[in-house]
Protein 1
Amino acid sequence: MSEATVDYRPMWTSLGLNLDAHDALLGVLSKAYGDIFMSQKNRPEGMAYFDFVMSEIHGLRIKELMDAKAKGRKVIGTYCTFVPEELVLAVDCIMVGLCAGADFAVDEVEKLLPRNTCALIKSTFGFKLGQVCPYLEACDMVIGENTCDGKKKAYEILDRLIPNFYAMDMPQMKSGEGKGLLRAEYVKLKEQLENLSGRRITPGALKKAIGTVNRKRQAVQRLARLRAADPAPISGLDSLLVNQVFFYDNPERFTDSVNKICDELETRAKAHEGVKPKGTKRLLMTGCPMAVPNWKVPAVVESLNAVVVGEESCVGERGSRGCVDNFAGDVDGLIDAIVERYLEIDCAIFTPNMERLEHIKEMAKEYKVDGVVLYGLNFCSPYLIEALDVEKELERAGIPAIRIETDYSQEDTGQIKTRIEAFIERLSD
Ligand code: BJ8
């Protein structure tokens, strides 16, 4: 990650950031990125765009948001893939993902939350309490969703810390009333967005927004399919980075950049060129989402004789698969189509959630994986409990799996490395 050439400090000050704390965070981020990403070999040339995005993560993109705000556009922050970007774009607002992947202001956080709260929620609080996230501070509205119990209760507190915080309710079951409940929540959200932006959603605007988000998803779906090649034409780390940038980049520019990488990967695949030799062990990761800069486990995997070829995750295929049908002629019909697509997200908050097990097996087959890493954050009951069933199901299907339970600290990296190394050796038997 290169140094920013423009002085963004006045912009950060105007957003109310704590500049010293923010410098410290950027230092950690920059070092982690340099150590992990820039030491990779044989990366696609198209990753240069994503290196640039990361070097400007709190610079140019924030400036773009501030320029858009100056012209009257609103910025909407989200913490979950269940918030439809289609509705946000249809009122000419900009959506940014706010999930954070680093510990910050832990002592302050633990005055508000129990220590045994998952790292993702604690990090959300740390970024707010430490005043270090320009995305969060640039938001005109922040949407939380009542998914897991941790988020649901934490949002009651976050509501007091963040101005214009809006909590969206979520069904716990997809069957029965579930679809109707989600639809009702999306209609309420649409009204909130219309009030904030002063625009009414028209069929034309919603269709255009659906097209934009579909193209963005299709680009990452194309990238995912190309990873089925052996040798893998792109590393799991670079693919994860693309899926992370999905949440805050300009959608059209992101789509073009991903498609350019895909063109390059097609050529690589035809030439049997890869980031590691053919026959390298291929792993699928499944479980909790990994937000920037949470690269710990894939970095460990790829420091060994293995490559990650898929992520069954909300920062990955669970969050980006499927598209919204764009055929209906009115807003009601288009919202029905949005509900259909979003209900396909197999989040572990749903009960039962058998579709997720099927999807993991499908991915294992499609990407020709040798083994699966069940990734869970400490204290995340939904994914840690579901991991037991996933493991049994994979065992029945003859697919080896390893459960990794961790947090955002680096203290257990050595131990995780030892376990994954032994797992990979077992795959060679
Ligand atoms: S749709 S996965 S983005 S809720 S790790 S906070 S589940 S205790 S993140 Fe998620 Fe939406 Fe579901 Fe996806 Fe709770 Fe677990 Fe923490 Fe989690």
Protein 2
Amino acid sequence: MISFSAPGKIHLLGEHAVVYGKPAVLAAIDLRVHVKISPSRHADLNKESDSLKKIIEPIVKKELKIKKIPPYDLKILSEIPVGSGLGSSAAVSSAYIAAILSFLNVKWNLELVNNLAYEAEKVFHGNPSGADNFVVVYGGVVWFHKQTEPVKLSSQIKQFMLIDSGKPVESTKEMVEKVRIKLQESRIEVQKIFDDQERLVKELVVALKDGNQNQLISIIRQGEKNLESLGVVGRKAQNIIRLVEKTGGVAKISGAGGVKSGSGMLLCYHPHPKTLLSFTKTHYLPTLSIALGEKGLLLCR
Ligand code: MEV
């Protein structure tokens, strides 16, 4: 049996703008997906993984210039909530691609898995930046920019919390498209938002390195406001975020967002985590504690 795991991710800042060549800071988190492949005599009839196979297998076959993959059983166990901004598609694709390559005895490396996972992300999301697949494959806290080599960052601040604002009804693809249309209609306004996110992302790198909590809170607050102006944060999430801010903390969406219903997992930080926890209990909000900067793709023995 061959087994790989990959982490989920959060965007500390820069989501959406990163699609248009602006920088983003992302981190691998301590929620993982585990993918196991074992040789089988018959084709796997597991319907659940069928749609995933239909996306991943052609990408691997094209890369290796092969027509067939011998039958195998595929098992996927995930701790990463699906469609909530935590990079579940990138994580599952990366772990699955690495598992198939090993199953086929192909000499693989992280670069190959990352490139193929990016191809899968194109099928899932249409026009991805490549940031999600990069951070789940390589792990850590990452400065990502489409045109330059990504850089691993150091962060003194690692403990964050997620608050579930509800699963978005829109897909990442739809949210990226929504921003594309807004950019077409209000180019100057959106470009201004992107420029401001770039400034904040640069400041964030310093705040993380120095462990400057006040700076981090101020940056995330401004960054979230920009995401709201971009039109990717729904009412429900905005209400939760304003309440978190009133307690002295900060919160933002962690990926593409959503407007019709939930906006996915909110990344929250509070100088006094107990205050945040008691706030979420009073409001019956589901939470998860997460650590940032976790390991990327791993072969499990
Ligand atoms: C989705 O996790 C992040 C987006 O910036 C899309 C992308 O980077 O491909 C919205």
